[in-house]
């Protein structure tokens, strides 16, 4: 631990003066931009991960429209990734040049100070071309610091991002398992045949397929599930109480990074419909009922 502390102190003693020196504003600005571009690349990697899910789901379902649309999404993501990578490399190399130049000037100024170069020869510790040695050591220090530091930052943020995605998917899967009567420990073993969902609506009219258990107390968000054969669910439906709630729900889904696509509302007898692919493999549909009677529960037709 003491050795690590000594190394850290030596590192800060060499690295930090540049960011407090005469060239500090250029150094700080370039470093912040390089870090921001690295974090943006992590976000693009998360978006690529979501794209894989949507693209291969469309391929599996033979959904031609979504399949073609995802080619456009991939093109946009790839363009952003390439441009970001090129500019990050360019700005990082620019920062390396300015940082190396400042350190080289500072250390070359210290070398002949107080007759150091004469005293080295008198002591018998003379070295050939000390100016070149200084420049080369500074190059290794600056390039290594930036390369390792930026790569480490990107790796840590990527790890955290995908851990969050993994646990969010696991928690949702466990919650659905419990709603089906399972213990939540085995993940998604089977899917429901009929799914009904409302959020904060008035009490629904009881029907044979949808018991009268919905409440409007500002807190109830109830999911009613009827068990059926494995792997035959079409979608998980969410009905918004009005247009404002619909737009807010769609906006929150898009803010999480999901691909939200407009659908045909007539197939569900609603005014508007959007859908997105859930991490566990079932589409989530959000509908705005429009003029349709809200006393009639909306059901997913199995297929």
Short description:
The protein is α+β, with helices and mostly antiparallel strands and 303 residues long. The protein has helices spanning 2-15, 24-61, 64-110, 116-123, 130-179, 243-255, and strands spanning 192-199, 221-227, 235-239, 261-263, 272-277, 283-288. The protein has 6 helices and 6 strands.
What does this structure look like?
The structure is a single chain. The chain is α+β, with helices and mostly antiparallel strands and 303 residues long. Helices cover 56% and strands 12% of the residues. The strands form 2 sheets. The protein has a 4-stranded mixed β-sheet with strand order 3-6-5-4. A hairpin with an 8-residue loop joins strand 4 and strand 5. The model is unreliable at 181-207, 209-217 and 292-303 (pLDDT under 50).
Note the gap between the termini: 63 Å
**In sequence order, what are the helices and strands, one letter per element?**
HHHHHEEEHEEE
* Count of beta strands: 6
Main beta sheet: 4 strands, mixed
The helicity comes to 55-70%
Rg, nearest Å: 30 Å
Mean pLDDT, to the nearest integer, reads 76
Number of helices: 6
Q: Judging from the principal axes of the Cα atoms, what is the shape?
A: elongated
Strand content: 5-15%
Low-confidence sequence ranges: 181-207, 209-217, 292-303
Class per helix and strand makeup: alpha+beta
Structural domain count: 2
Strand order of the largest sheet: 3-6-5-4
